[in-house]
Specification:
The chain is α+β, with helices and mostly antiparallel strands. The protein is built from 8 helices and 15 strands. It has helices at 24-28, 46-59, 68-81, 129-133, 156-167, 210-221, 233-237, 269-285; strands spanning 4-7, 10-13, 31-39, 42-43, 87-94, 114-121, 135-141, 172-177, 180-184, 188-193, 196-199, 225-228, 241-246, 250-257, 260-261. A hairpin with a 2-residue loop joins strand 3 and strand 4 (42-43). The longest helix has 17 residues, at 269-285. The model has no long low-confidence stretch (mean pLDDT 97). Bound molecules: N-(5'-phosphopyridoxyl)-D-alanine. N-(5'-phosphopyridoxyl)-D-alanine binds next to helix 6 and strand 13.
Length: 287
């Protein structure tokens, strides 16, 4: 089946959807994005993603071409048109396509933002098998820019990080700055020691994960302690369990960090329980 995508007001077959070569997303990575997961054909935490999108746009002084209500309708329509049961909706808004390449921002009245959405079907996204196996991570230097709280499409270094991990026979990389873990290449990072979950506090150094917010709330409801502070790779290696969170992986156990095995080399019981709670609660609140 040909995928139906959304570009600047039109629902089109993916083969017919185009964006200008002058688009600032293409030339300058001048764009923001969101990834919202889909379970049972419904959107998980759409409100959280819409709120973060509005913040990303506002921090970059970029106009949204649609209201958040319209955005919800577009998400739902794409899920319906593509028959998505489990998967994700990718959304990108860029500062549009001016007449020529120029470092100066174009006048928004003359250059409307570009908006693109597409679905990704991922049957089995919520199945427990991959989570029970967990993922292996390496540590790499965090050399990204200083506004990681804005969800921009500048993903070259995270992409390189994943390749470094792959080359090392692992699945992902945790980034380290000034001796402390910031986050994973496309997820937030945590360890569990006893009854306590430790994760870096929110700042401009990391993306404010929508899954992170929900998981920390559910953890506290499940009587787990949450400590938001800097931590080192060594501390995580000495923990009982570790995990990452994101819209595309939910709660995913980390079973090895720089060659040191955790929780017996398989998904730890607390991380797996948190995943179960997160998926159950998210399904109930999906729209
Ligand atoms: N990535 N940190 C980074 C650097 C991320 O790119 C992401 C998400 C997260 C987790 O955020 P959330 O829980 O809101 O998905 C943290 C998405 C999934 C991606 O780039 O595909």
């Amino acid at each position: 089946m040909t995928r139906t995508v959304y570009v600047n007001g039109a629902y089109l077959p993916e083969t017919e959807a185009t964006v200008s070569i002058f688009d600032r997303g293409f030339l300058m990575a001048d764009g923001v994005y969101e990834v919202t997961s889909v379970l049972d054909g419904k959107l998980i935490d759409f409100a959280g993603h819409a709120t973060r999108l509005e913040r990303s746009l506002s921090e970059l002084d970029m106009a949204s071409p649609v209201t958040m209500e319209e955005l919800l309708e577009i998400h739902r329509e794409l899920v319906r048109l593509n028959g998505i049961d489990e998967g994700a909706v990718y959304l990108q808004i860029t500062r549009g396509a001016p007449a020529d390449r120029d470092f100066v921002f174009p006048d928004p009245a003359a250059t409307p933002s570009t908006i693109v959405l597409f679905t990704q079907s991922k049957p089995g996204l919520s199945a427990p098998a991959a989570a029970q196996k967990g993922i292996k991570v390496i540590s790499i230097d965090d050399i990204r820019w200083g506004r990681r709280d804005i969800k921009t499409v500048q993903l070259l270094y995270p992409s390189m990080g994943k390749m470094m991990a792959k080359k090392a026979g692992c699945d992902d990389a945790w980034m380290v700055e000034d001796g402390f873990v910031t986050e994973g290449t496309s997820n937030n990072a945590y360890f569990i020691k006893g009854n306590k979950i430790v994760t870096r506090a929110l700042s401009n150094d990391i993306l404010h994960g929508i899954t992170r917010a929900a998981v920390l709330r559910f953890a506290q409801e499940a009587q787990m302690e949450v400590e938001e502070r800097n931590f080192t790779i060594e501390e995580a290696q000495a923990a009982d369990e570790a995990f990452v969170t994101s819209a595309t992986t939910f709660v995913m156990p980390v079973v090895e960090i720089d060659g040191v095995a955790l929780s017996g080399g398989k998904g730890g019981p607390k991380a797996l329980r948190l995943r179960e709670i997160y998926i159950d609660e998210s399904r109930k609140a999906a729209v």
